Amino acid sequence: MKSFATYKVMKEHEGLTLEEYLKTILQYSGRKIQKLTRQKGILLNGKKVFLQRKVKSNDVLRVLMAQDMAYGVEPEEGSVEILYEDDYMLVLNKPAYQLVHPTGQTTKGTLANYLAYHLQQQGIITTIRPVHRLDRETSGCVIFAKDDRSQFILEQQLKDRTLKRVYWALVKGIVHPPSATIDVPIGFHPTMANRRAVKEKGDPAITHYHTLHTFSETSLIELRLDTGRTHQIRVHLAHIGYPLLGDGMYGIRTSWLTRQALHASSVSFHHVKDQNEITVQAPLPPDLTRAVDFCRSENS
């Protein structure tokens, strides 16, 4: 049986074309609208309608809801820590050393596999849709959408910089200035395909940071991203001379930390349905808490 979402047109939206209403008010993508049109999945007051028809106050719009038939990954039993969940999305706390989703030769053991199993146990079938990524060694907040429309809305917020991501990092050195913006482009490394580098003709990359604590030879800093280039934080920190501790690719390995000292501490976004701003936080994991304590002890 087909399932429809129902919307009533408000007076302030009267005069918009149906296509404008779908795109700007309900935030359906152009591709999704085309697909719904082919499926005869858009009804206005119970009837099929042209997209250029202007809507009126109190019109009732019904839009076909897609029914996912598979998860897109193989469900696998494993632990997931849910920081936030509603009908449209989840925020999970990713542990270090775990991939967000299958890639290359790795098809199991990812956060996506474990989430698929978690939803399967609840009788929920939905494609696993990560809205953004974290490196394997980075811990913290990852957002997953439960349907394609929610994914589109959240990805638009990411593009428009209204979805905000905050990170904590331990770096080598006393950062100066203590707060600043790093605005240098990033592109592929000229000789190593799996690395990125600062390049004059690379993609724009903007990272804001400020210092939370300084120790004898290290600093704990908070970073906010305007862009999401691969390895952005790690490349930018190395570029300004304060490499990430524990990072064997761009930073400095240490005997007392077995992975890069980077944690996605929070995400902020506007709720898919009511646009209320929500902030979700992930506590600093035990290994990074110990690393901070170690830096503090060297300070005393």
From TrEMBL:
Belongs to the pseudouridine synthase RluA family. It is an enzyme of class 5 (isomerase). PANTHER family: MITOCHONDRIAL RNA PSEUDOURIDINE SYNTHASE, RIBOSOMAL LARGE SUBUNIT PSEUDOURIDINE SYNTHASE D. One of its GO terms (molecular function) is pseudouridine synthase activity. The keyword Zinc-finger does not apply. This is Pseudouridine synthase. The active site is at D135. CDD domains: PseudoU_synth_RluA_like. Responsible for synthesis of pseudouridine from uracil. Keywords: Isomerase, RNA-binding. Pfam families: PseudoU_synth_2 (PF00849). Its EC number is 5.4.99.-. One of its GO terms (biological process) is enzyme-directed rRNA pseudouridine synthesis. It comes from the Bacteria. It catalyses: a uridine in RNA = a pseudouridine in RNA. Residues 89-239 form the Pseudouridine synthase RsuA/RluA-like domain. The keyword RNA-binding applies. The lineage of its organism: Bacteria, Bacillati, Bacillota, Negativicutes, Selenomonadales.
